[in-house]
Automatic annotation (TrEMBL):
PANTHER family xref list: UBIQUITIN-ACTIVATING ENZYME E1, UBIQUITIN-ACTIVATING ENZYME E1 1
Pathway(s) annotated for this protein in UniProt: Protein modification; protein ubiquitination
Stated name of the protein: E1 ubiquitin-activating enzyme
Sequence similarity: Belongs to the ubiquitin-activating E1 family.
Active site: C507
Role, per record: Activates ubiquitin by first adenylating its C-terminal glycine residue with ATP, and thereafter linking this residue to the side chain of a cysteine residue in E1, yielding a ubiquitin-E1 thioester and free AMP.
Domain Ubiquitin-activating enzyme E1 FCCH: 103-173
Residue span(s) of domain THIF-type NAD/FAD binding fold: 326-818
Domain Ubiquitin-activating enzyme E1 four-helix bundle: 174-244
Any Pfam family: UBA_E1_SCCH
Reaction(s) the record says it catalyses: ATP + ubiquitin + [E1 ubiquitin-activating enzyme]-L-cysteine = AMP + diphosphate + S-ubiquitinyl-[E1 ubiquitin-activating enzyme]-L-cysteine
Enzyme category, top tier: ligase
Length: 857
């Protein structure tokens, strides 16, 4: 990739770079360049470069980006024929089949536990269909008449075998070929613009004209328009009008001189929030050009945030440079507004991916850099290796250190004048002694950089109570959103919420999984129970046996009984003293999980079993399982035993011999383990109620059993060495050498194998079981840039609700949806009305006087 900023073309190094690019032989360009990005280039030169890239064999993707004050533009040309392999980056949609008709066209119905996401025209393939096996040929079939739980196929199945049961339908993603026009043609015939704000549907053609006029101005004058210069603004307006008159069908009805005047005033400036936003957008386009993943921008995108300007009219003298690092910002907003930025008292909650970007932006903008300013940032987390890909203020040597402290130090290096204090406290009810009333009352604005809803809701309630603006944002992969919470103008964050994420029923996860997510959820739960919770319960008992057993007796329920049984197992029959004991335990766990339990399940519910209504018990989405036969010749079986025995040894403080990691030697040790023969039982109850919240079966004898378990525990405690304790293991997903993910992936994949569910690799298992929220630098940069554009409005203080913008963006598509925030709900009673932001203030003296007067009356 070649990245050129030709705004500094008087620098010899960039002159050399441009000359190098011009003189490169075609073979060298082919080998070394896939994409070029120009961030500041006049139109004639851009056309020249673009022609070369467009006509090169193979084409070189060309991106031109420009930011001028509160206006920006991007142009993309990825060649005459560019293939997109994955237009949206989403996982292929799937459905579990309930029936397929013998019709023309065929009707496919799916189970109703989840709505289908298919659309008309999608191609799908079928697998695991019983009866109508013709559907399992792997041939893509086209959907029509897509509905929430069914669809038709453009296929005649009249002569197919009759559908019996089962089957999965999966979307087939199709590549898409895009035909880009070169800049020389696109500038005259831009086609449809990518729209960001539907309240400005007529703005892109006008900005297309404005950027051409600016290029003409610079070409004629040899400089950019001066900030606050009416003469330069009128010159640009004249040039825009002249270009417009010769634009033919692309002619704009109203060139909007007022907007062009603002455009001219800020043309010299590159503002940090705009650079962050466009940096995120262009960065994602570079990835698309190199990978073919996600749909490219096609082809022009224009954006402005004119509403960010101060509401009061500024004197031209206010734009004059002060010979400071903020002169570019002053040329757009004026020196008085810059003082407001510097004296602001901000609270940034969170110092992860969003928090790092915010700190960088705020430091470069000069926020909280004045004598009266202060920026407080808090985060109770420490830096992990996986953070480094997107939390760019951190380095390898910072791993294990407090996020907020490291981020604050890095931000202070960006701007030494930044008045910043780093804290390591969570913001919740327990820290209201730290973040007390005085703290909240002194704030100017709060910026959330959080990754969970509960924390967001708490901060929202504090901002509501103390009447403070809250700037909210979040990212999910290539998607990002922003929400402005402004006292008395908008609804608060908690006023509208997404529906809770659907959770799989407990019985599905434990006995009837039908996708890999169910298997991984179960595996994560088993991991925590085996190596963290049970050892912790053992230690709790050994540390204070009287209080512990009294609590269990008092509870007297099935859960207490199960907990005591697990503690007793660790101290008695499953206690490990040598590594061979750990191997035996792991081997028997395999047998229990993947053979015995499955044998019991299919004994209790045979394949031909029926429900109380007479319907087949094993109907979709249930999958009939098959027990596994352990074999040391199967690497996945052996690796499960290795990971489980190593972690078991860690909990018992047993050293792991080197041979434990050698498959041949380990296999020999495993072969020594005696595995008892399993006999299914008639009296076993397996939960099938999807509403059940526990799998433990209550019994009238629970109290008796608990007392007996406590008696046995007492015997074990007296036999244990003084001070004996186990070592609980907390799940750590980022250490690839600790065997945590090996065990979880092993548990999940063996269970998936039981139920004929496709298995996953350790990386995909880590993503799901580690509950990793996908975050990338591009969407993070865009979200924080958009929020900082709104921060200008908040700190100005004179904007109305129609000036603010909430945003949802998906850089994968790309799609932008900006809209005014929703006003707060108005509650009316008789002749009064109020919102959640209003309150009645009762003054005690007046109240007492009123009470006294009534009493006297």
């Amino acid at each position: 990739m070649l990245l050129c900023d030709l705004a500094l073309q008087d620098m010899p190094i960039l002159k050399d770079t441009i000359a190098w690019f011009n003189e490169l032989p075609m073979s060298s360009v082919h080998k070394s360049l896939q994409v070029v990005v120009f961030t500041d280039l006049n139109l004639d030169k851009a056309i020249e470069f673009n022609d070369y890239c467009h006509n090169h064999k193979p084409p070189i993707s060309f991106i031109k980006a420009e930011v001028r004050g509160l206006f920006g533009s991007v142009f993309c040309d990825f060649g005459p024929e560019f293939t997109v392999f994955d237009v949206d980056g989403e996982e292929p949609h799937t459905g579990i089949i309930a029936s397929i008709s013998n019709d023309n066209p065929a009707l496919v119905s799916c189970v109703d536990d989840e709505r289908l996401e298919f659309q008309d025209g999608d191609l799908v393939v079928f697998s695991e269909v019983k009866g109508m096996t013709e559907m399992n040929d792997g041939k893509p079939r086209k959907i029509k008449n897509a509905r929430p739980y069914s669809f038709n196929l453009e296929e005649d199945t009249t002569n197919f075998a009759t559908y019996e049961k089962g089957g999965i339908v999966t979307q087939v993603k199709q590549p898409k070929v895009l035909n880009f026009k070169p800049l020389r043609e696109a500038i005259k015939d831009p086609g449809e613009f990518l729209l960001s704000d539907f309240s400005k549907f007529d703005r892109p053609p006008l900005l297309h004209l404005a950027f051409q006029a600016l290029d003409k101005f610079v070409s004629e004058m040899g400089r950019f328009p001066a900030a606050g210069s009416e003469e330069d603004a009128q010159k640009l307006i004249y040039l825009a009008g002249h270009i417009n008159e010769s634009s033919g069908d692309a002619r704009v009805e109203d060139i909007n001189p007022k907007l062009l005047r603002h455009f001219a005033f800020g043309a010299r400036a590159v503002l940090n929030p705009m650079a962050a936003m466009f940096g995120g957008l262009v960065g994602q386009e570079v990835v698309k050009a190199c990978s073919g993943k996600f749909h490219p921008l096609f082809q022009f995108f224009y954006f402005d945030s004119l509403e960010s300007l101060p509401t009061e009219n500024l004197d031209p003298s206010d734009f004059k440079p002060l010979n400071s690092r903020y002169d570019a910002q002053i040329s757009v907003f004026g020196s008085k507004f810059q003082k407001k930025l510097e004296d602001a008292n901000l609270f940034v909650v969170g110092s992860g991916a969003l928090g790092c970007e915010f700190l960088k932006n705020l430091a470069l903008m000069g926020v909280s850099c004045g004598e009266q300013g202060k920026l407080t940032i808090t985060d109770d987390d420490v830096i992990e290796k996986s953070n480094l890909s997107r939390q760019f203020l951190f380095r390898d040597w910072n791993i294990g250190q407090a996020k907020s402290t490291v981020a604050a130090s890095a931000a202070a290096l960006i701007n030494p004048h930044l008045k910043i204090e780093a804290l390591q406290n969570r913001v919740n009810a327990e820290t209201e002694n730290v973040f007390d009333d005085t703290f909240w009352e002194n704030l100017t604005v709060v910026v959330n950089a959080l990754d969970n809803v509960n924390a967001r809701l708490y901060v929202d309630q504090r901002c509501l109570y103390f009447q403070k603006p809250l700037l909210e944002s979040g990212t999910l992969g290539a998607k990002c959103n922003t929400q402005m919470v402004i006292p008395h103008l908008t609804e608060n964050y908690g006023a509208s919420r997404d529906p809770p994420e659907k959770q799989a029923p407990m019985c599905t996860v434990h006995s009837f999984p039908h996708n890999i997510d169910h298997c991984l959820t179960w595996a994560r739960s088993e991991f925590e129970g085996l190596v963290e919770k049970t050892p912790a319960e053992v230690n709790a008992y050994l540390s204070n046996p009287i209080d512990y057993t009294n609590a269990m007796i008092k509870a007297g329920d099935a859960q207490s009984r199960d907990t005591l049984e697990r503690v007793l197992e660790c101290l008695e029959k499953e206690k490990c003293e040598t590594f061979q004991d750990c191997i035996a335990w792991a081997r028997l766990r395999f047998e229990d999980y993947f053979a015995d339990r499955v044998k019991q399940l299919i004994f209790t519910f045979p394949e031909e079993a029926s429900t109380s209504t007479g319907a087949p018990f094993w109907s979709a989405p249930k999958r009939f399982p098959h027990p596994l036969q352990f074999s040391t010749a199967d690497p996945s079986h052996l690796h499960f035993v290795m990971a489980a025995s190593i972690l078991r040894a860690e909990t018992f403080g047993i050293s792991v011999p080197k041979w434990a990691k050698h498959p041949k030697t380990l296999a020999e040790a495993v072969e020594k383990v005696t595995v008892p023969e399993f006999q299914p039982r008639e009296d076993v109850k397996i939960e099938t109620d999807e509403k059940a919240i526990t799998l433990s079966t209550a019994s009238v004898d629970d109290a008796v059993v608990i007392n007996e378990l406590i008696r046995k525990l007492e015997q074990c405690r007296h036999k244990a060495p003084p001070g004996y304790r186990m070592t609980p293991i907390q799940f750590e997903k980022d250490d690839d050498t600790n065997y945590h993910m090996d065990l979880i992936a092993g548990l999940a994949n063996m269970r998936a194998r039981n139920y004929s569910i496709p298995e996953v690799d350790k990386l995909k298992a880590k993503f799901i079981a580690g509950r990793i929220i996908p975050a990338i630098a591009t969407s993070t940069a865009m979200a924080t840039g958009l929020v900082c554009l709104e921060l200008y409005k908040v700190l100005d203080g004179g904007h109305q609700v129609e000036d603010y913008r909430n945003t949802f963006a998906n850089l994968a598509l790309p799609l932008f949806s900006m809209a005014e925030p929703v006003p707060p709900k108005v509650i009316k009673h008789q002749d009064m009305s109020w919102t959640v932001w209003d309150r009645w203030i009762l003054k005690r003296q007046s109240y007492l006087e009123g009470t006294s007067a009534m009493a006297q009356g």
